[in-house]
């Protein structure tokens, strides 16, 4: 009993200490439990027509700041009571955001603004307003990253330069609430957390972590240095002693006629490939003077359907065994090769040394975004001087919501069908069933349906099934584009007599060829087409 009482006393003391630390180290916090009017200032700039709303997060009684319209620019800012120095100890930047309708193209980042003496006004807040740090998710097209950008003043030039965190973490792709945390440490370290898990650690002064680096290179290529005229960068050169062989014919064609080919029996030389449609009639409203002389539309010549081909027959082409192409001398090592020229390095006049970043203070928190999505909800924006404070807010404000949303999402995915397929997989299968109905895949429809059914029963093979169907589609398209039409049989001279004796009519011969090629799984061109190759 005494031990239990001591544990309770210890727990109470720890809780009190945490609450005291939270109160003492919390610089700014907004839970948006109350309407933002009067506390946050919406920009009056003409470009920013997006309407902010005080709205509940879907499925919760918790309120947040909502992006309510699609395809709009938004700008809103909250001035702090006092500027926050980033040079003293640790600083933690944290906020929650939820893409309730998903995020295909848009940003959900915060800007931590410099004091207004830097040249901005709350009512005129826009993308040009000077900030110290920009932090948060951004996704559109190839961009998918959690930005961390430090705007740092160059002590030599006096210019402010944006330094981007290299290889930032990607944005979660679901519709759940996520919490983003940036921890700036006094040892020049910055840590990026998503949902309390560290995703990136970097050093402000490392050239490997920020682009461009905060500290410029000590040397730079000499802009006045010029490559010498006699500098040879060619590693290989044509052998000057090489001679073209006497039997090398540069004029020989790549292809020649196949002299062994003979015109297939039954070829209809005098029949055109297309004829006038005998069932077509001139429209009643056709005016010869205005519309010109009416001509019947063309249709495929039915006589060519059972023949090897129609029209003038030409021998097909084949590769010329004597073709060698343009002769060129073989390459040898260049005796004068000096390597790839580079200008010499000189001291960088803009170089400076830095022990710590010269952070500008934070005087306001702003959201300035352009997004194609609505339903983006911001909540629980925090600035603190202790990462334990941020952790406590994550545990009390974010985690309960996230767990509820995660369980709800899991239940929705599992209850959609008794087979346990996820919503994403169902969409994939719906598309695959539509693919199976594409006309040019009709020969393979049963095979495709069989693959889909197997994947529905075994969701773990879905990717393999998609690959298999893509292979089928590409194979069929390749045949249609590059020889899917049946080529008339080209007979060789020694085989003419045997072919004539064994096949009674050209119609039977064509049917047998069709059957044979169908067994082999190859498509064939209409036999009415003239043999051009």
TrEMBL record:
One of its GO terms (cellular component) is endoplasmic reticulum membrane. One of its GO terms (biological process) is ERAD pathway. This is Calnexin. The chain crosses the membrane at residues 461-482. Residues 204-312, 488-533 are annotated as: Disordered. It is a single-pass type I membrane protein. Residues 247-260, 267-278, 285-294, 510-519 have a biased composition (Acidic residues). Residues 1-21 form the signal peptide. Disulfide bonds join 105-140. It is found in: Endoplasmic reticulum membrane. Keywords: Calcium, Chaperone, Disulfide bond, Endoplasmic reticulum, Glycoprotein, Lectin, Membrane, Metal-binding, Repeat, Signal, Transmembrane, Transmembrane helix. GO terms for molecular function: calcium ion binding; carbohydrate binding; unfolded protein binding. Residues 221-237 have a biased composition (Basic and acidic residues). Calcium-binding protein that interacts with newly synthesized monoglucosylated glycoproteins in the endoplasmic reticulum. It may act in assisting protein assembly and/or in the retention within the ER of unassembled protein subunits. It seems to play a major role in the quality control apparatus of the ER by the retention of incorrectly folded proteins. It comes from the Eukaryota. Belongs to the calreticulin family. InterPro entries: Calret/calnex, Calret/calnex_CS, Calreticulin/calnexin_P_dom_sf, ConA-like_dom_sf. SUPFAM superfamilies: Concanavalin A-like lectins/glucanases, P-domain of calnexin/calreticulin. It holds the Pfam family Calreticulin.
